[in-house]
Amino acid sequence: MNNNRFMERIKVGLWRDNPGLVQLLGLCPLLAVTSTFVNGLSLGIATLFVLCGSNVLVSATRRWIRPEIRIPIYVLIIASLVTCIELVFKAWFPSLDRSLGIFIPLIVTNCAIVARAEVFASRHPVGASLADGIGMGAGFTLLLAAVGFVRELIGHGTMFAGLDLLFGGEPMPGLVLADGGWLLAILPPGAFFALALAVAGKNVIDRRRVKKNSTAGLGGRLPR
Amino acid sequence: MEFERREAPYLAPTASVSSIMLQVLLALIPAALAHVWYFGPGFIFNFIIAAAFCVSGEALMMRARGREPALALSDYSALVTAALLAFALPSLTPWWVTATGALFAVVVAKHLYGGLGFNIFNPAMAGYVVILVAFPMHLNLWVAPRMGDIDYQYLSIFETLRYTLTGSLPDILTFDAVSRATPLDAMQSGLKNARTVAEIQTLPIMGDFGGRGWEWIGNFIAVGGFWLLIRKIIRWQIPVGVGLGLMLPAGIMYLVEPGSHPGPGFHLFSGATLLCAFFIATDPVSAATSPKGRLIYGFGIGFLIYAIRTWGAYADGVAFAVLIMNVAVPAIDYLTQPHIVGHYDGDEDPLEPANDGEAP
Lengths: 224, 360
Hints:
The structure holds two protein chains of two kinds.
Chain A (H helix, E strand, L loop, with lengths): L2 H14 L10 H6 L4 H24 L9 H23 L1 H7 L10 H9 L6 H30 L2 E2 L4 H4 L7 E2 L6 H4 L1 H28 L9
Antiparallel strand pairs in A: 1-2
Chain B lengths: L16 H23 L2 H23 L4 H5 L3 H12 L6 H17 L11 H12 L22 H10 L8 H4 L4 H10 L4 H4 L13 H17 L6 H20 L7 H5 L4 H8 L10 H21 L6 H18 L25
Helix pairs in contact in B: 1-4, 1-11, 2-4, 2-5, 4-5, 4-6, 5-6, 6-16, 11-14, 12-14, 12-15, 15-16
């Protein structure tokens, strides 16, 4: 697998087929834990690791997995990986573990991971699957972090609060811009609004690019 | 000689969106005056702020969508949204709360869904719910109705305006001195403290049915509503449905246990019931459209209002009930499509030749 195709997989995961923005998969954690930047980022990173691991394992064993029972096997693989991640969180980031709570074990049910196993890893070699896992995981992580950032900024009036959950040490209040914020942004509806605006934003940017390319002679298609 | 050639329908409808919306606004005037009389000039400030933000939000969104702003502004629907929002707000509401609700109503609930005619949610109620959820502490300041014998510190026009613009009261007054529980609040907290309905209704804010002052606003809303009914701007199904949906369960529960369930009269004349029945639920865009569907839609709203008031955390549930039933409208309309004239369901279709299973 050469460098070019690796970068292409990353680009696809980050933008063109972003699991949150385009496939609209894994919305449950996306909506539930993105009340702050740190929460979104850390759950995103956990998902990234699970996604890479499951893609590699599914791809490596794809010749032996019988198609009739492939989904239970994927879930088994994903569940083992999630258990590992959960234990890592409990051992090294106990406060983060408390803050994310049930949503770490719930990564098992994140349909974005099963979808990548089914759609990509079960049909591609290990290297490509790893690249796909990195791209998709990074795309998901960035979206979680971005939504968390916006909701925290509007809802709490802070930026990057609680980085100590990730890095340890003294409690970090982050950049405090205001005493309080607009409560709605931290409530569940705020997550829907933030996600909807993110999807709308992506569509606007894509449409602009299509327009530019149609005038540039690419026939109105997105450059891939 | 040239003859004018006309095709059916021969009677051109005189109704246009702007004339309907104007008549709705006119019908709200008596209730608005009563509101100002009982709860002070705050209503006027709220309406002006809501109208300013609704209209400018509408103009902004029309521009952003590449359309002519005057097109949307000339139909007065933004003003109706503003008026309904102003009725929902307590007379002491800081301007930014009103502005948030107005902008959300027009920008998100109306124009992001495609503008007037495409919004699935009632814009005014969507805006109200957003500020109710986002600023719960700012929507509690209902002043006491101006009834003379209720012990209460009245605010002057300037003090009201000052609160609207800055969110602060005169230094000598506290929030407790100017605000009173609404009848629904008093009923809910009273019942929670194990008092009986009869005891709660001896409170000075309670009138014959609902709260004092509130009842009169309700009457004037009903007057406006009946005028709209006579003008055929609204149909009878939704108001009747809301009334039935609310008063049937209320009546049954009242008969079963009058000590802990206020009667149907209290529910009818409290909170926003009448406003909902005549003006909110009858929004032509977000309501059901078939006659039977309108009855079901209204009944659902009425029942949900009762359920939220009785078992919910909020004192009044009109906005939530309307939004929930808005979601059900496509299903209701689908299931209650009227028959095409001359067509029948099932076996008795006279247009089909009878089939007795025998070969002719």
